[in-house]
Amino acid sequence: MQRLLPDERGHFDEFGGQFVPETLMTALEELVEAYEKYRDDPTFQDELAFYQREYISRPTRLYFAKKLTEHYGRAKIYLKREDLCHTGSHKLNNTIGQALLARRMGKKRIIAETGAGQHGVASATAAALFGLECQVYMGEEDTQRQSLNVFRMNLLGSDVIPVTSGTKTLKDAMNEAIRDWVTNVETTYYLLGSVGGPHPYPMMVRDFQTVIGRETKEQIERAEGRAPDFIIACVGGGSNAMGIFYPFIGTETKLIGVEPAGHGLESGQHGAPLSRGAKGILHGSLSYLLQDEYGQVLPAHSISAGLDYPGVGPEHSYLKDNALAEYVSVTDDEALEAFKLLSQTEGILPALESSHAVAYIDKMIASTTKDDIIVVNLSGRGDKDVQVVAAALGVNL
Amino acid sequence: MAITQINRIDAVFDKLEKENRTALMPYLMAGYPDVETSLELLVAVAKAGADLIEFGVPYSDPLADGPTIQAAGEVALANNVNTGTVFELVRRARESVDTPVVVMTYYNTIYRYGLERFAQKAAESGVDGVIAPDLPPEEAGPWAEAASKFGIATVMLVAPTSTDKRIERISELSNGFVYCVSLTGVTGARANLPSNLTDFIYRVRALTDKPLAVGFGISEPEQAKEVSGIADGVIIGSALVGLIGKAGGGCVEAARAYMSRIREAIDT
């Protein structure tokens, strides 16, 4: 049933759509057309499969976390190891797909937005691989918090443009990327990093990330002879969650998206639009959004820069309102505990984003039995976060 | 259907057409540089010969705007301006000014306020129309319906990248006039008009009979004059807002003088 969504204008019921300046509408029409053409083109799909296998290092493992399972003594816990993708997160699944599309469309320049830098690094990587010029917009505050990633992008041959408007974070970087696109629309491909933005991005990014869910389905079938009872994934914009959820939507598997509760949902300092937001429009699509009573977008907060975003992909809003997935939240402190727990039980440093998904195990495990199976999407590795974690734990490096 | 009200916008373009003149259409940001001065500015530019005034609602994420209007919006938001403030300012301006006022706002401010509530409040305050730069025809249906119920014009935009088919459709849906975005880019003063502007306006002209107003990038009297030769309206935004920012305490007088210069240029 969900295969039919979005409709041809990008709506997931009332969510999604194309709320962008007219200047971009023809470009979006062209993108829809190009994507429709290549998504079913065997040559394109073969090429994508080649890079997924040889370059990204897919399929990633579905790892049985024996010690973590023993730690809790309840459901069996598996980790989908997207942290083992080249560049350290699931982001490359999308950037390789879109860069291949950009190349087919004859675009020589790509632009991208980034918060923590994971999507920026993945875009810069794809650009280097395919010989495309690449400029990455990044909030000035994030360039300072993540200076190492700025340098990584530079090493890969991309320019990073610090954004000084608004809150100087991801949402403003995205505004600036859209302004660049409006200006250079004829020559430039906008490589959007999550399942947000105007149609066709939410659908296209979902499709490129669905490889996570397809592999998971096969792998768990092989390991356990059945589908999992629970899938848990973190949700900022929501691309890793959408990718692993998609093949399981409408099945018996319970899908759980974990939003960042920051300092707590009641504190107002969080990044949980599905839990505490209202319907609104940001960056081209209608979805749940953190905003005031006049529609002014409110700044988000999370210890994880990749979840520090006031909006969320429109398909998640659709899944929420139709009870096809459940959305919960985890605070900064709970995520930090999970970071330490996974590091010490399994020897795996999870990204702070993914730590939110790991942290939710603690909250739901009591309701499971030894016969249950949980899959957690480990969307990225935590090496990039050690400075933030050290600071949060009061350790001077 | 309800009786279509004769909108102030239509009346102005009818009158100007008979007089063979081009509309001067300044843009001001509500609440910039402060709430009371923005009201004074609105009245001043009306009296200095503006035929229609665009009144901007400040927004946290103005993705169609360049640095000048972004900065003005940030100041206005810091002055605690909200949708209600904007309506209240227009209501007060109506005590002394009959010039059409079109509110320029990003769609989320309308959506969040409530489509019907926004349209009703706008009408009650004396607003004549609404321009939402991030609301293309594909998504405009619900708003256009609410707006027409209360006699509010929905002004739609066309861009140089729009196909003929889109221009036809947008022009048909647009009320009052068609807003022609002069260039591929965001708002902001430019040194030169785009070289293909004339071709673009002729292309639009061939596809619709509605008045055409040109905006984005116009700042100098000579540019305004040139545009007045091909279009029915000249929109001046960032240049005016930038000048208001620089003029400080003398901004009302500076805006008035600037409007008079532009008026003179397009009338001769």
Explain this structure.
The complex is a heterodimer of chains A (397) and B (268). Chain A is built from 15 helices and 14 strands. Chain A has helices spanning 22-39, 42-56, 66-72, 91-104, 118-130, 140-145, 147-155, 170-183, 201-224, 239-245, 273-276, 314-321, 332-346, 352-364, 386-392, and strands spanning 11-12, 15-16, 62-64, 76-81, 109-114, 133-139, 159-163, 188-190, 230-234, 254-262, 278-282, 285-289, 326-331, 373-378. In chain A, strand 5 (109-114), helix 5 (118-130) and strand 6 (133-139) form a beta-alpha-beta unit. Chain B is 48% helix and 13% strand. Chain B has helices at residues 8-19, 35-47, 67-78, 83-93, 107-113, 115-125, 141-149, 164-173, 197-205, 221-228, 238-247, 251-267, and strands spanning 23-29, 53-56, 101-104, 129-131, 153-155, 157-158, 178-181, 212-215, 233-236. The mean pLDDT of chain B is 96. Chains A and B meet through helix 1, helix 8 and strand 11 of A and helix 3, helix 5 and strand 6 of B.
Low-confidence stretches of chain A: none
Report the mean per-residue pLDDT of chain B as an integer.
Answer: 96
Span from first to last CA of chain A?
Answer: 52 Å
Q: Could you tell me the mean pLDDT of chain A? A: 96
Which range best describes the helical content of chain A: under 10%, 10-25%, 25-40%, 40-55%, 55-70% or over 70%?
Answer: 40-55%
Radius of gyration of chain B: 17 Å
List low-pLDDT spans of chain B: none
Q: Quaternary arrangement of the chains shown?
A: heterodimer
